[in-house]
Amino acid sequence: MIANFFRKSKPINTVAIICVLLFYYSIAIVTNKIPFQPIAVFGVLLTLGSSQFIIIKNKLTKHNSYSFLLFVLLITFFVKTLTFTSSLYSNLILFLFLRKVYSLKKETKTIQKIFDASFWIGILFIIEPFLIIFITLLYFAIYLNEGLKIRTLLIPIIGFFIPVFLYFTYCFWFNKINDFCQLFYSFTDINWGLYLKNNYLISIIFTLIFILISIILKTPKIIQTKDSFNFSWLLLILNFILSALLIYFIDNKNGSEFIYIIFPSAIIIANGIELYQKKWISDIILLLFFIFSVVVNVL
Q: Helices 259-274 and 198-225 meet at what angle, rounded to 10?
């Protein structure tokens, strides 16, 4: 029944999913897990809209609401993602980058897309230096799309260099050169103490199980079909891996950084759910996500 409702993509589904998000957000505020921040709600809703735009535009799932629902439920697993932090707004900029990268499979304005994507990476580097690892995703997309050539190797470097150079100019002019140098001396806080707490640990394990199952089941079918989705699927897997590495290396861990990994995770799991022909299996999986989201929020 649950799977049948969300198997379609209609306005009523969107409204229902947003109501689910607001319900969990209210619980988190009442239980004092997060403060009330209207700007954070707006940021999360904008994040949801951006993610759905990328998914629909690049056909990363079939025409259903699974990824949208899973995106919201995964946010409730890591409730700190509902707070207004640098991770929230840098993730919105990351979506501008991902939009260009996933659209590279459409062979139109390729050079412009590569330049735009690398430009956004330059801005992300200024906000959070470790986000530079996503330039790997760009080069991988270029390699899959048309291969690495001198031109496609140099354009990302130029695009990345422009915002970084402008920031250097600003720092130099206002005698803040130390701020610029700090980008290259970021401290790596490899402290997993926060993630070993019950609410984070079980959320990570629960999510990873379904991601691995989806990858194991979906990948052989993708290899057999050899259609345009192969490009997107490989990017999604690398997107997930890079997001996990980012969370591992990022400074000042507080739980809000999980926002980076929710996008690829939701799409990968949604693709796994789409494989099941029997609706009762999809119902059980979605019901497990609903139950787990309640359990993890009352711990």
A: 50
Quote the tokens at residue 222.
């993708």
Instruction: Tell me the C-alpha distance between 293 and 297, whole Å.
Output: 6
Residue linked to tokens 């990328």: 54
| Helix spans in 103-228 (H) | 110-127, 135-145, 150-173, 177-182, 198-225
User: 94: part of which helix (H) or strand (E)?
Assistant: helix 86-102
Q: CA–CA separation, 252 vs 48, rounded Å?
A: 24
Query: From its phi and psi, is residue 147 left (phi > 0), alpha (psi between -120 and 50) or beta?
Result: left
DSSP 79: G
Question: Does the CA dihedral 99-105-108-113 come out positive or negative?
Answer: positive
| 291 exposure class (CB count in 10 Å sphere: 0-12, 13-18, 19+) | exposed
pTM value is 0.93
DSSP state of 190: -
Q: Which residues, at least 6 apart from 299, have a Cβ–Cβ distance to it below 8 Å?
A: 198, 199
Mean pLDDT of 252-278: 89
Task: Convert the pLDDT of each residue in 76-90 to its tens digit.
Answer: 898 888 888 888 889
Residues 271-298: pLDDT tens digits? 999 888 677 888 899 999 999 888 887 7
Instruction: Tell me how crowded residue 254 is: count the other CB atoms within 10 A of its CB.
Output: 12
Cα dist from 103 to 106, 108, 240, whole Å: 6, 9, 17
